[in-house]
Amino acid sequence: MARKKSRNNIPPQRQPAKMPKNAIAEKVESITGTKPESSLMAEVSSDEFGKLEALCDELIALKAKYEGDVQVLEADRAELDELRSSLENERSELETKASEREQEVRGIETARTELLAKEKALLTKEEELSVREAEAQAGFVKQHRESLAELTAELTKIRAEHALSLEQSQNEYLQAQRSLDTEKKRLAQEIQDEWKKLEQAKLELERQLVGFKEQQSQLEAKESTRETWESVKKEQLEQEFGIRIAELESELERINAYRKKEADRLMQLQQRLSGYAELERVIKQKEMHSAEELLISMEQLESDVREYRQKLAGRPVEELEDEVDYLKDLNRVLEDQLRERTQELQEANIERHQRAMGVMEREQLVNKNRVLEQHNDAIRLATEQLKREIDDLKDLQQGQAVFPALTRMDRELSEQSVTQPVPSLEEFVEDLQTRISQVDSENPLYFGKDTLRLFIGGLAMSQLHILQGISGTGKTSLAKAFARAVGGQCTVVPVQAGWRDRDDLVGHYNAFEKRFYEKECLQALYRAQTPAYSDRFNVVLLDEMNLSRPEQYFAEFLSALELTGEDRQVVLMEDAPAKYPRFLRDGRKVPVADNLWFIGTANHDETTFEFADKTQDRSFVLELGRNDHENISNTLKCPVMYSVSSMRATIQEAMKRYRPEVDRIFKTLQEHEITSVLEKRFGIGWGNRLERQARQFIPVVMAAGGTSSQALDHLLSVRLFRDGKVTGRYDTKAEHLTKLQGCLQSVWESVSKEGFAFLCEEKLEQEIERKEMA
User: How many CB atoms sit inside 10 A of residue 242's CB?
Assistant: First the structure.
């Protein structure tokens, strides 16, 4: 007989923990908006439930407090709107009263005019009477004596009435004038008082608005902090569940191995069951449906045997006994076989049922494993970040960081900054002008809109700017104020006269100490790559850039700025160290990011060098002059961090919008006589770099509110009509310059109808005068 196998090697099934009335799941769903998986919640221990519940209560309290603050802010805004509407109503009532007073004054003036008209009519009548009196003296006394007496009496009466009416009118006029003057003074005083109240209320409202904005920014900061805290808590929970997930994964692997063994055993049993197919076939041939019917049939056969025995009673006893013994042995063997087959069949059915249950459990475990894998992916990312931070901390503790400052930035600037998009370029110019004027309240800076339009156009044209001008025109201040106004970072690098190579700018590697001495410029380059500054404006201010030759210490950057993509990088070391900062390429190259601009200030005297064509052709040059105070808004601006990516998108949109205009300008220039004059007389042509820069510079200036004439005039004056190109040469003559001046005036009429080439013509005039004087 087959024996029942031992199943002690089967691992016990874990009973899932019941959720405490779904309270924790509902709290999590109310906070995150997503209900957690019941299978995941079932694996959480009671201590973890307590921590999760406390965390949920704390988050709900913070959320309620935030919503309360928002409601208070909304109520304050509503009260502010009501106060504004009441002030507007009072102002309209005062204006109505003033108009009524003006109407009264006009009525008094009308009455005065009527009185003067009556007085004029009386004087006319008096003259007529005098004429009649003269006629009477001339010979009509007798005929008109009676009428004269009547007229004299009437005249006397009219004069008396006129004098009385005139006196009354004068008294009324004087009284009305005094009353009107008194009322005017009272109304003027009331209007002045109301105006002062309105001004005070306006200032108070502006202060309240600034306070509200500050509160809003604080709330946004709190919300950001809360989200950060939630993410940190989430990472902590995921880390706490990481060990549990690993245990479940190992348990799942053991169960899968066990299932595989059981599948092999099931295959063996199925093979054994196939051996019983013949028995079942025989049972079916005998028209039986089970082994019980076979037993009944055997009992029937035994009864038949007994009957046969009775029938064969006359046969020899020995022969019958032998036959009966044979039949009994045969019957016993068949019964044993039947019982063994029946028992094996029952065991096979039980095992098949267990296999089916195991398959269902396996499907549930597979689904559970899929969910756990998704959580595991998120935990793996957090684990990798923690490993990197731990490695950085170990390097810092062991003193093995080759780039200590850059490694520190990896830890401190790993959070993404919240920026806002740049408005339209024209609005951006106005906003930038106001913000720059408010950077330093004690020493406000004023830059004209034309200067700022050219500056923004230069941001799109090149990442290297050269600001020129006499001392005190705000070259250094413009770069610093721009960075602060847009919420960016400005790193000041004073250039020294003895600089000769790249190491003077970015630093050098000390092989003995195994450390790289990172200078400010290198730190600024790396800071622009970090998440905290990757979408913000970054400026490296090279103060007194031409104290040394930029073509030497800045040569690698000049070459890198001409490249695109991952080729824009500067090599720091020959070999990469074992551990290096995250954003260095190959551990030894620092990229030059798109959100970083080099702005150099330049003075021209006996202590400085002139810029070579290599530098000027690759840079945006801006000559700063005196900037007077314009009508700049004094509305207080809240701090802001503008997005560089939105600035790039706005620039691309402007280039696409004004591309036909730039195509037309260059087509006109290339077909005009000025092109041949520049090539034959001066050896200058329209290069590809100049055309590419114009396609980036002119559309941005136009989108910022400027004109194509203004942009093209500036670009040509600093690229073609500067010293060394058209002007400042000994091999040119005055007649050549005069010819070029005529061509310039002619082509400008076709290029632009909006202005003149003031800057180019001014340089040509100065050069012609210098040639004529020589």
Answer: 16
Which whole-number Å values give the CA distances from 503 to 402, 499, 500, 510, 573, in the listed order? 16, 9, 8, 12, 11
**Residue 605 dihedral angles phi and psi, to the nearest 5°:** -150, -165
Q: Taking the CA atoms of the chain, what radius of gyration do you get in angstroms?
A: 51
Residue with token string 């901390």: 393
Separation CA 774–CA 730 (nearest Å): 11
Q: What is the pLDDT of residue 1?
A: 39
Among 455-469, 725-739, 744-758, the range scoring the smallest mean pLDDT is 744-758
How far apart are alpha carbons 369 and 649 in whole angstroms? 44
| d(C-alpha 647, C-alpha 550), whole Å | 29
Q: In this predicted structure, what is the pLDDT of residue 535?
A: 94
Beta-carbon contacts of residue 673 (< 8 Å; ≥ 6 apart): 743, 746, 747
Q: Give the three-state DSSP class for 609.
A: coil
What pLDDT is recorded for position 313? 61
Report yes or no on whether pTM surpasses 0.90. Answer: no
CA 366, chain centre distance (Å):
41
Q: What is the mean pLDDT of the chain?
A: 79
Instruction: Judge residue 502's burial from the number of C-beta atoms within 10 Å of its C-beta, 0-12 exposed, 13-18 middle, 19 or more buried.
Output: buried
Query: How many Cβ atoms sit within 10 Å of the Cβ of residue 99?
Result: 9
Q: Which residue is it, tokens 């025995």?
A: 309
**CA-closest candidate to residue 712, choices 774, 757, 669:** 757
- pLDDT tens for each residue of 449-470: 899 999 999 999 999 999 998 8
Would you state the structure tokens that stand for residue 650, as one six-digit string?
């706005």
Q: How many Å apart are CA 603 and CA 25, to the nearest integer?
A: 69
Instruction: Give exposure, 278-306, as e/b (b: 16+ Cβ within 10 Å).
Output: eebeebeeeebeebeebbeeeeeeeeebe
What is d(CA 193, CA 515) in angstroms, rounded to the nearest whole number?
A: 71
Predicted confidence (pLDDT) per residue in 37-54, tens digit: 666 666 666 776 677 777
Judge contact between 500 and 551, C-beta under 8 A: no
Q: Please, are residues 422 and 650 in contact by the beta-carbon 8 Å criterion? A: yes
**Residue the block writes with tokens 């004069």:** 159
Q: Residue 467, SS3? A: strand
At 284-294, the pLDDT tens digits run: 666 666 666 66
Q: With both helix axes pointing from N to C terminus, report the angle between 425-437 and 449-461 in degrees, rounded to the nearest 10.
A: 120
Name the nearest CA neighbour of 692 among 674, 666, 672, 654. Answer: 666
On the question of pLDDT at 20 being above 60, the answer is: no
Mean pLDDT of 177-201: 75
The answer to whether 625 and 670 are in contact (CB under 8 A) is: no
